[in-house]
Amino acid sequence: MNVIKTNIEGVLIIEPKVFGDNRGYFFESFSQREFDEKVAPILGHTINFVQDNESMSSYGVMRGLHFQRPPFTQSKLVRCVKGAVLDVAVDIRKGSPTYGQYVECLLCAHDEEGKRIAQEFALTANPSPLTGKVGLQFFIPKGFAHGFAVLSETAVFQYKCDEFYHPEADGGISILDTSLGIDWKIPTDKALLSEKDTKHPLLKVFESPFDVNLNLN
């Protein structure tokens, strides 16, 4: 697999090695051994994933921007296995030089709709070097709020977490906070949010439970 650093330290894009022929394709979606060999040295510590989650959403659904409060902080490794989503990680570590900044990654599955959306984005005015690729994964470390918007008719989204789900530790900031400067590629009148996600605070009034010296181990 190819590990790609982003403009915020610790946020990584992972490109698995895919083997394809006239029958279809095969790839290792996750290998603890390879993750330890290639990702742990960049992070400075190992990751032990303990829970896998999956969600299905329709076009226009926006989920986020979520996190778990200490002591139940989570790192996540996310991917889209059907359709396409725009995935975003926002730095919410107090004292971080990139506080309030974000990294986005277009996650497109290997199905026809995922490939189509990847190609459509590759033809935009300012595509990134990764735009147009399918099967990418996105690693989001602790101290970041995470969310995504569904760009396909249907999207199936999977993610690994290194801490179990603790509902009492749920937290979030508003996914519709325009001060973040995120273009979710979804018209406002098409956005579908849960009631809970409409009640998260804006970043400017948010009291973060994280700081830049967060223990990541």
Can you describe this structure?
The chain has helices at 32-38, 40-43, 112-122, and strands spanning 2-5, 12-15, 19-21, 24-26, 51-58, 62-68, 76-82, 84-91, 93-94, 102-108, 137-140, 144-150, 154-161, 170-172, 210-211. The chain is built from 3 helices and 15 strands. It is globular, with a radius of gyration of 17 Å. The protein has a 6-stranded antiparallel sheet with strand order 1-2-11-7-13-5, with no helix packed on it. It has a 5-stranded antiparallel sheet with strand order 10-8-12-6-14. Strands 3-4 form a two-stranded antiparallel sheet. By secondary structure, it is mainly β.
List the SSEs and their pairings.
Elements: E1 2-5, E2 12-15, E3 19-21, E4 24-26, H1 32-38, H2 40-43, E5 51-58, E6 62-68, E7 76-82, E8 84-91, E9 93-94, E10 102-108, H3 112-122, E11 137-140, E12 144-150, E13 154-161, E14 170-172, E15 210-211
Parallel strand pairs: 9-15
Antiparallel strand pairs: 1-2, 2-11, 3-4, 5-13, 6-12, 6-14, 7-11, 7-13, 8-10, 8-12
